[in-house]
Design goal:
The structure is a homodimer. The first copy, chain A, has about 450 residues and is of the alpha/beta class. Chain A is built from 12 helices and 25 strands. Helices cover about 25% and strands about 30% of the residues of chain A.
Amino acid sequence: MRIVVIGGVAGGMSAAAKAKRTNKNAEIIVFEKGRFVSYGACGIPYFLSGEIESYESLIVRKPEDFERAGIKVNLNAEVKEIDVKNFNLTVEINGANEKVGFDSLIIATGASSKRLPVEGRDLEGVFTLKSLDDGIAIKDYIKRASVKRVGIVGAGFIGLELIEAFVKQGLEVVSVDIVSSPPPQFDEDMVDFVKEKVEEYKVKTYWGAGIDRIEGADKVEAMVIEGERVPVDMVIFSVGVSPNSEIAKNAGLELSVAGSIKVDERMQTSVDNIYAAGDCTHSYSAVTGKPVYLPLGSLANRHGRVAGTNAAGRLAFMKPIAGTSIVKFFDIGLARTGLTETEAKREGFDVDSVVIKAYDKAHYYPGAGKIKVKLVWNRKDGALLGAQLSGPYMSVKRIDVISSLIIKKASVEDLKAVDLAYSPPFSPVWDPLSIAANQAVKD
Amino acid sequence: MRIVVIGGVAGGMSAAAKAKRTNKNAEIIVFEKGRFVSYGACGIPYFLSGEIESYESLIVRKPEDFERAGIKVNLNAEVKEIDVKNFNLTVEINGANEKVGFDSLIIATGASSKRLPVEGRDLEGVFTLKSLDDGIAIKDYIKRASVKRVGIVGAGFIGLELIEAFVKQGLEVVSVDIVSSPPPQFDEDMVDFVKEKVEEYKVKTYWGAGIDRIEGADKVEAMVIEGERVPVDMVIFSVGVSPNSEIAKNAGLELSVAGSIKVDERMQTSVDNIYAAGDCTHSYSAVTGKPVYLPLGSLANRHGRVAGTNAAGRLAFMKPIAGTSIVKFFDIGLARTGLTETEAKREGFDVDSVVIKAYDKAHYYPGAGKIKVKLVWNRKDGALLGAQLSGPYMSVKRIDVISSLIIKKASVEDLKAVDLAYSPPFSPVWDPLSIAANQAVKD
């Protein structure tokens, strides 16, 4: 039995490893178009900030490690075509095309960063950040071009991490986002701490503003934002990603939300024995039941595990997800799960919500800070639809409580009933989540 | 309508405040035998360590604040007797006994620290720690008697906090506990980090050893432990507490587990319109359904809120609890919820368990440390029975995920399905809880 995996980062390599563990006798072949496999892409901002010295720390397992486990890894090997009728694919290795047959296939082609369609977007000094190679190229360019001022287009999760990284590198940072209260993944009433931080660190922000064009003779010299010329030496687009699903689409596989490869709960595509995993595909939301496109490393690993198990002949399911994400921005954190109030209304729920601000530790405990909690629930039955947290960074990991409750279809009444851990260094006697639940229930 | 509250700390004052908010017209009278009300008793160790300079920071609301809210607070007022037939009580104020009638009564008499029945237990320099007055007396004695060496009997949660507090004060600390791997609230395989810390901070430990007696001419000079004379200038017993339920028992109210005042889900005692809250009473376990005695500040506040609501004429329920507790010991934390493996076996469950050790953040993120996770579940249906965590201190607050799942009768399969928040500063791509769940499910 031969299982082929296209793509060697999070989804692909966890699929390959899990397939091998599931079926020791299966032949596993991975094709990765880049020169690295199995790295923690989410760690790249910390490599740019200098908090991680070498990009090699980000590499979890090397090709040799996989080879030792009986997994054949081909680098610089780009799959050009999938033939779903004859179960083979065409791959370009060292400039030559090869045909490779398979019994099961796992597509883990990832996603590509978008660039806004503005003039100058392809000038030298304009980057996006998705792969480890992107990260290395950015760090290299900063040095080579003596970059002093960097423009970051987009202030979502990665955008914020890049702001922090470059501030820590001593660069002047200009942030542009069309949204006036980024990150856009949050309700507007939850992001005031973000504004405080950009002021504190003297980041020049153009929020609620569009970029007109990028200017420069042969390399980046300035961004023009709403008519104002803002000199920068480098520009990074961080305005989201699109799934790399073209190869699947060309093969006749069905697509789903945001152009991602359509899969069922087994991560199987519209063709039997062909699976997808990671940023090229989608998950299902536990709140809406609908497919949801969330390109996150944690989900890619989950997808891979499920796809790998099924591809190797055992049964596994990717259960619906709460949809949890988290980001650190200097000393604050932002976290969300489920739907925001805006999203829940858009989905047609009869939405109720509450926002509270409370200490994250006992008020008298050294270092206590304020955390903001927003709960969103269904007015009809109290079912939790989502939550957002912002505050001292470690404090927002408590989002996981809400994620767990959402998975169990719990209500704000249920949250109120949970005896959350209390001791002064960890929480006030009423945990902020309990305070929010008490207010939601209005008892 | 008159509501009387006996006891003015966590359970009592939250009951009084909630009763007033529930029924603005009710007359609320509090009798507190000490000189303080409404303080964070759990903060006392941090007052002893010097991390909190003044004990006044621990006081949440002063008697004047309650008076302004329409709640009458009597300090140094000890209730001597409750007459449950005629609905009145006898209280000693300024040396004189007074009779006070009530329509509803809330008993929040708290608990008292135990002393082991050894010779010398009443010598000058022997203390227990429960009330703010205890804390003030200990701090005062350290100064007055120039204490250099302190013996702490018991290495449970408070015992550990006291070890840390006195080490931070530059004192030599001797810790004794009959258990060889304290704290006794944990399975033995979960406490290795505790042993590392006492070694690191050169705490002299006699664990798995009993104290024979305390010696001294007119004040403490030494503890004798298993025949060895260990010089100390002060001894603190930290060997647990007993509920102050004598007054309730004398009045004919039924008692429950560990001698606590028996209550139903409304926190009502065996007599209608008489309630109990806090360390003098019990909760119900969501795992076993049985009453459980857990004298914790967080539960006291929950009890008080429910008792106060019911006493004031509206309906509220204290739902069964997971049984969550947490403690910081230097830079590590220990947390538990539900049952330990030992407890679960004792309860007759068909127990399965797993222990894993993993990074608490991405392995490459600065400051990442190892966290240990133990899951305990019912082999029959996978239902979570409990969990224990130990590791870098903020990392163990994730115990709340398991508490929430226990409240919802969830299984290890459910835990496996939760998409826990991932970003390198917060967690590895597989959160330690997910790693444990994956191992538990053996998929």
